[in-house]
Design a protein that fits this description.
About 35% of the residues lie in helices and about 35% in strands. By secondary structure, it is of the alpha+beta class. The chain has 2 domains: about 180 residues, FAD/NAD(P)-binding domain; about 100 residues, Alpha-Beta Plaits (2-Layer Sandwich), CATH 3.30.70.2450. Strands 6-5-13-14-15-12-16-19 form an 8-stranded mixed β-sheet. It has a 5-stranded mixed β-sheet with strand order 2-1-11-18-17. β13 and β14 form a beta hairpin. The radius of gyration is 21 Å and the shape is globular. The relative contact order is 0.18. The structure holds flavin-adenine dinucleotide (FAD). The site of flavin-adenine dinucleotide has 33 residues, from α1 and α7.
């Protein structure tokens, strides 16, 4: 059996690694000339680490990443709540912070242990399905046939377009800003820090490695939005991004399957996007090996819908401009701060839901 994976982001790489370790003849192509140096996702959740354990990727990710054990929630400069993730689970819960380009590099290394390398500068332009074969057409004019094709080609998926499935949803109007910086003396080591500001504005600081931080905000200048001083010594990059919230109506047509951002996208609030793609890819590989692929679409659609609903609920709540919501935010965070069981529940939701 042979499988073509289109796209060497975290989703496609997970699919390829999980198929290769089960002995499936897998190939993976990407239209880029090399791995992206642009890192989007940072937070790796416990479920992703569990899924990537058998391949050996988790051990490497754990070696390199920062274990985030606390989430500090501020209203402006005033700290309202600290959620300890470390109370969850037997070995102490944490979200692993690691820049996405490093996660991808580790997955590529694991793939190379199975003798598979990403075929860079190889763009899929089209495909057709005939009988039980998928004929993939590449920009260099070649056509090759496979038993299955996985479209892990991101939010502007060519595979999805060629399948003709709907990708319904909305484009959010606001622009978000992002900065990756070196800074000294930031007091919240191994913590995510969430600042709720006035008028529905938010800013979040995430450690990437020692003295290096990612700052994200729904304002036009993430660094300027921070209410506490961050002593920046070097700016690695600054940029902007827009958010769409979408999901496909079906995850496969015959032998062509969708996974990752090709099938769903939403805001980074809650840090679920990459993790959901890793989960899609691992489930595809497991079901292919088990002979239960027919359940993939329904299972992944339901999971994607739940994650999008939760992420959107959280985004709307923290970015709401309503005064009532601001008051509710204070009341709820104060209540959670006072009741350890609620804190543990919130910590669990951050890690596992
Ligand atoms: C600012 C920001 C912060 C984020 N933070 C988090 C976070 O903390 N946690 C989290 O879980 N998620 C986060 N996300 C979301 C996460 O980055 C994405 O969900 C994730 O990258 C999706 O991975 P993917 O492999 O599905 O797609 P991609 O990473 O987009 O990879 C798709 C690949 O397909 C290739 N490709 C496209 N078309 C073709 C073609 N025709 N032929 C061949 N190759 C092709 C592309 O070159 C690309 O390499 C964040 C996103 C943003 C924007």
């Amino acid at each position: 059996m042979n499988v073509m994976v289109v796209g060497a982001g975290p989703t496609g790489l997970t699919a390829a690694v999980e198929l290769a370790r089960r002995g499936v003849d897998v190939r993976i192509v990407d239209k880029r000339a090399e791995g992206s140096g642009f890192s989007r996702a940072v937070g790796i959740l416990p479920k992703s680490l569990e899924l990537l354990e058998a391949s050996g990727a988790s051990a490497r990710l754990l070696d390199e990443g920062v274990r985030i054990q606390r989430v500090h929630v501020f209203q402006g400069k005033q700290e309202l709540l600290t959620v300890s993730l470390g109370q969850q689970g037997a070995d102490g819960g944490f979200i692993l912070a690691l820049a996405q380009d490093r996660t991808e590099a580790i997955l590529r290394d694991c793939l190379s242990n199975h003798g598979v390398a990403v075929e860079w500068s190889r763009e899929l332009t089209d495909f057709r399905q005939e009988g039980d074969r998928v004929f993939a057409v590449f920009a260099d004019g070649a056509t090759e046939d496979f038993d299955y094709l996985v479209g892990a080609d991101g939010v502007r998926s060519r595979v999805r377009d060629a399948l003709g499935v709907d990708y319904d949803g909305i484009n959010l109007p606001e622009t978000w800003s992002i900065a990756d910086v070196d800074a000294n003396g930031w007091p919240f080591d191994k913590s995510f820090v969430v600042f709720r500001l006035d008028h529905g504005r938010v800013a979040v600081v995430v450690p990437l490695e020692a003295n290096r931080y990612r700052v994200i905000s729904n304002t036009d200048n993430a660094l300027a939005a921070l209410p506490l001083p961050l002593a920046v010594t070097n700016i690695h990059r600054e940029g902007e991004f827009k958010i769409s919230v979408r999901q496909v109506d079906r995850y496969n047509v015959d032998r062509v399957y969708l996974a990752g951002d090709a099938a769903h996208c939403h805001s980074p609030v809650g840090g679920r996007g990459m993790n959901l793609g890793i989960d899609d890819a691992a489930e595809f590989a497991r079901r292919l090996a088990d002979g239960t692929l027919e359940g993939y679409g329904e299972s992944r659609h339901a999971r994607g819908r739940r994650v999008i609903k939760a992420s959107e609920g959280l985004r709307k709540f923290v970015t709401s401009k309503s005064g009532i919501n601001a008051m509710l935010f204070r009341v709820l965070t104060a209540a959670v701060g006072r009741v350890p069981a609620l804190q543990r529940g919130l910590g669990r939701a951050m890690l596992y839901d």
